[in-house]
């Protein structure tokens, strides 16, 4: 457990608010865009590389890299929250970029599929450390009034970079081959991200301590049992199972990334099987995260005004409908429309779930709660890869998509029944 430090205040130069911390916040948005870009280098190219360079035909075997990525990222998310409290946010962020250094090089030179899987273990560790820490740091900086907007900007930057890089690498692969050209983009991202994080990013832990000093309980008393310091075990139990809003967010996050793991690993194979070329597959692979990324600029801020629960429930149900459309369609235009709907549904859910965690978790243990939530959420990558791969091998890709669509709809219904509204809608401070 982290040791208690002397309280900090505005007199020490630490203030909460988006405007007061605009420079560091903007820098962290840029850093998270680079984090997303490192992930995006794989989305179009790797499923095709599995079949064409390594001769993998079984869908379960192809998806081993997503399984490895999901397990590594989920576990590292959990550790990132605890380590951010213990050692500070910046050291964890820099460590994540250091782990990423060999990833694009392994993807370029891998002589066998096992090397690709190993690269994705490192990628998962890196993404868990870097993405989790940028989330925690932005929540630290802005305080409670603009939390949805902050998460919208953070996730928009990351997933717009995923989309842009997926599109760019698709065109690079079509023009220059599957290796090495697409992964040279990743080399540049890692170098720039490491340099900015080590030399320019500043520590934000004092901002969380300042917020903890002025933290006020909800008027309805719903979260009174969560105030003050909790042990790591208590944080895990509350976030995973016991606290209705935290646990509802955790299950919705898991199912959201379960269907994203399906989209990442099997959609390019489905589209290729229908006769689409690499360029068009790259467009579809980019369209979904592009709408997801852009949409979060709107949905995160709106959840600060309208509340979190409506976006979570509606977003999960919209994703389910979009997945059903993917399963039923067989043309580029219909798949493009489904990708837009899937991106819109994910945009409604993604920043809102993170904001809900920030609403409920006390600042003293919020970083650890974010880590637990992201453990469950990114465990969805592993669950999605395993479930979708097995179902696709047994019954075909379309059957796998139908099953995941049903699970996504069930998740939305569960959130509607169990989750309460977490955001106390008050007028934000003018300076925030």
From TrEMBL:
It comes from the Bacteria. One of its GO terms (cellular component) is plasma membrane. The keyword rRNA processing does not apply. The keyword Lipid metabolism does not apply. Keywords: Cell membrane, Membrane, Transmembrane, Transmembrane helix, Transport. It is found in: Cell membrane. It holds the Pfam family MFS_1. Gene3D superfamilies: MFS general substrate transporter like domains. Residues 25-423 form the Major facilitator superfamily (MFS) profile domain. InterPro entries: MFS (IPR011701), MFS_dom (IPR020846), MFS_trans_sf (IPR036259), MFS_Transporters (IPR050171), Sugar_transporter_CS (IPR005829). GO terms for molecular function: transmembrane transporter activity. The chain crosses the membrane at residues 21-41, 53-72, 92-109, 115-136, 157-177, 183-201, 311-329, 335-358, 401-420. It is a multi-pass membrane protein. This is Predicted arabinose efflux permease, MFS family. It comes from Blastococcus tunisiensis.
């Amino acid at each position: 457990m982290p040791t208690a430090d002397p309280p900090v205040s505005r007199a020490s130069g630490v203030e909460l608010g988006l405007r007061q911390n605009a420079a560091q916040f903007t820098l962290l948005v840029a850093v998270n865009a680079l984090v997303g870009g490192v992930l995006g280098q794989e989305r179009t190219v790797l499923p095709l590389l599995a079949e064409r360079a390594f001769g993998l035909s079984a869908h379960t075997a192809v998806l081993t890299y997503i399984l490895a990525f999901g397990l590594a990222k989920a576990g590292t998310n959990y550790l990132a929250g605890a380590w951010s409290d213990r050692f500070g946010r910046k050291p964890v962020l820099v460590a994540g970029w250091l782990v990423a250094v060999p990833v694009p090089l392994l993807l370029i030179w891998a002589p066998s599929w096992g090397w690709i899987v190993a690269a994705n273990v490192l990628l998962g560790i890196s993404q868990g450390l870097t993405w989790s820490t940028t989330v925690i740091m932005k929540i630290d900086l802005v305080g409670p009034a603009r939390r949805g907007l902050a998460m919208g900007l953070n996730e928009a930057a990351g997933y717009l970079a995923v989309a842009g890089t997926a599109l760019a690498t698709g065109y690079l692969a079509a023009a220059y081959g599957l290796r090495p050209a697409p992964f040279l983009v990743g080399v540049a991202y890692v170098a720039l991200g490491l340099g900015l994080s080590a030399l320019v990013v500043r520590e934000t832990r004092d901002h969380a301590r300042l917020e903890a000093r002025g933290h006020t309980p909800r008027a309805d008393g719903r979260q009174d049992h969560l105030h003050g310091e909790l042990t790591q075990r208590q944080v895990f139990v509350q976030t995973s199972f016991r606290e209705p809003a935290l646990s509802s967010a955790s299950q919705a996050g898991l199912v959201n990334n379960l269907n994203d793991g399906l989209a990442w690993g099997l959609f390019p194979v489905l589209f290729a099987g229908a006769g689409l070329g690499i360029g068009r597959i790259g467009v579809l692979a980019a369209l979904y995260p592009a709408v997801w990324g852009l949409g979060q600029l709107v949905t995160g801020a709106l959840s600060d005004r309208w509340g979190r629960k409506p976006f979570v429930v509606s977003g999960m149900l919209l994703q389910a409908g979009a997945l059903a459309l993917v399963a039923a369609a067989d043309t580029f235009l219909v798949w493009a429309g489904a990708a837009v709907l899937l991106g819109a549904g994910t945009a409604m859910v993604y920043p809102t779930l993170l904001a809900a965690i920030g609403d409920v978790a006390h600042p003293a243990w919020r970083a650890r709660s974010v880590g637990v939530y992201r453990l469950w959420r990114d465990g969805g990558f592993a669950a999605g890869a395993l479930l979708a791969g097995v179902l696709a091998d047994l019954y075909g890709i379309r059957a796998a998509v139908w099953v995941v669509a049903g699970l996504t709809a069930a998740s939305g219904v569960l959130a509607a029944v169990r989750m309460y509204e977490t955001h106390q809608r008050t007028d934000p401070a003018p300076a925030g």
